[in-house]
Specification:
16 helices; 8-stranded mixed beta sheet; alpha+beta; 16 strands; about 20% strand; about 425 residues; Rossmann fold
């Protein structure tokens, strides 16, 4: 019987697959490392949540009328009869953890980041997978538009550190429960005579979530909604002031942006600020991240009224963008510093002890198992790109020494006492060992 990964879910490998270098685990670690560093420099701390949550959490938080809840969630009944769902997004679980663990008691403003996998049963394509990794931040507890600017700036700085500089920030305000109903009525009034020319999805959204009509990717829908009224023209005074201040802060920080009146997010919990980051050089699939404010979400999940803002970025999208743009990340060197080649059982025993000593000294080391010939072991050391090859045979064991080749020094060979090999290697490879 042959097995394969589930549709649109991917294996990540220690080697770079031909034509799909973004699946190389070393590249993932490089992106994650940069994201962690940026988050820590901005004062965000890591949070990790379970892979599944109560289905009701997403129904209440994300919204019954959203595509994610109505069509895309992986939901099942567990053995206790509870309806559970693999998380389809990162924010609602963070809010649940924030409330359950009373993080608000630690500080009135919680600045959190996560690197997590999310699951959506959607139409798969390159860059859009049913299991994908999302990196994100959440700033919970402040309604200051300056924190909106910080969150947006953090996202833009992350892309800059990756080398993706050809980005465009799209910005909009989606209002609040005070001003949005009036806009929703105006939008329905505009769209009603055009419904016959729209997709079934947009006809459904007309009833349950009219703002999402603006975000349709169908050409007929986009053409029909082109002349729709702008939400920013219906903002209440509070939302208008918040949006104006945010733009002032971004201008002060020299973060360029484009106002986009059709920009809405896919979740019901968004209020006020909505933003998306695109990379035009990537063509049709150019969205590489986005987020917004969710001032009613904590209350919706059972807490006190608490403002918040965050974003989510797909790791796969970042890696594919890097590949398409020809940007190479500095990758961690996974090759061993030392390789031990042993001939004979007595030499093998000493080699195993030496291998253990090298690793305890934090020197990445490998060994030629399976009693192969010296020639075969040397080929393996070369394939692994080891800097030093430590050769042990019967003569070396009797003399209490080892022959060491340094391939970073033209293959120069030196005899070193067995008791001094670890220190000798460490001194020679000290910069590498410390890294």
């Amino acid at each position: 019987m042959r097995y394969a990964a589930p549709p649109y879910m991917n294996d990540l490998l220690p080697v770079s697959p031909s034509g799909e270098g973004w699946r190389h685990t070393a590249r993932w670690r490089a992106v994650e490392s940069i994201f962690r560093r940026v988050c820590l420099q901005y004062g965000y701390r890591e949070i990790r949540t379970p892979v599944m949550e109560s289905t009701e959490l997403f129904q209440r938080a994300v919204g019954e009328g959203t595509d994610i809840v109505s069509k895309e969630m992986f939901t099942f009944t567990d053995r206790g009869g509870r309806s559970m769902t693999l998380r389809p997004e990162g924010t609602a679980p963070v809010i649940r953890a924030y409330l359950e663990n009373k993080l608000y008691a630690d500080s009135p403003l919680q600045k959190l980041y996560y690197i997590t996998h999310v699951y959506r049963y959607e139409r798969g394509q390159k860059g859009r997978y049913r299991e994908h990794q999302q990196t994100g931040v959440e700033a919970i507890g402040s309604q200051d538009p300056a924190i909106d600017a910080e969150v947006i700036t953090l996202a833009m700085e992350f892309y800059r550190r990756l080398g993706i500089t050809q980005t465009e920030l799209l910005l909009n305000s989606v209002g609040c429960p005070v001003c949005r109903p009036r806009y929703r009525d105006a939008l329905r009034e505009y769209a009603r005579p055009l419904l016959h020319s729209m997709s079934r999805d947009n006809q459904r959204r007309f009833e349950v979530n009219p703002l999402r009509m603006l975000d349709s990717k169908e050409e007929a829908d986009r053409a029909a909604m082109k002349g729709a009224p702008k939400l920013t023209e219906y903002l209440c005074e509070e939302c208008h002031t918040h949006f104006a201040r945010l733009q002032e802060y971004l201008c002060a920080l020299e973060v360029r942006f484009t106002l986009n009146s059709h920009l809405v997010r896919g979740f019901d919990y968004y209020t006020k600020t909505a933003f998306e980051i695109i990379c035009p050089a990537l063509g049709a699939q150019n969205a590489i991240g986005g987020g917004g404010r969710y001032d009613g979400l904590v209350e919706e999940c059972g807490g006190e009224p608490t403002p918040g803002i965050g974003f989510g970025i797909g790791t796969e999208r970042c890696l594919i963008a890097l590949e398409q743009l020809g940007i190479a990340l500095p990758l961690e060197d996974e090759s061993p510093i030392a390789f031990i080649a042993a001939l004979g059982e007595e030499a093998k025993l000493h080699a195993i002890k030496l291998l253990h000593a090298l690793r305890r000294a934090e020197i990445p080391s490998e060994f030629g198992y399976d009693n192969r010939s010296l020639k075969a072991q040397m080929r393996l050391a070369n394939r692994l790109n080891a800097r030093f090859v430590i050769m042990l045979g019967e003569d070396e064991v009797r003399q209490g020494s080892a022959q060491i080749k340094d391939f970073h020094n033209g293959g120069a060979q030196e005899s070193v006492r067995l008791s001094e090999v670890t220190d000798w290697i460490f001194r020679k490879a000290e910069p590498h060992a410390k890294a």
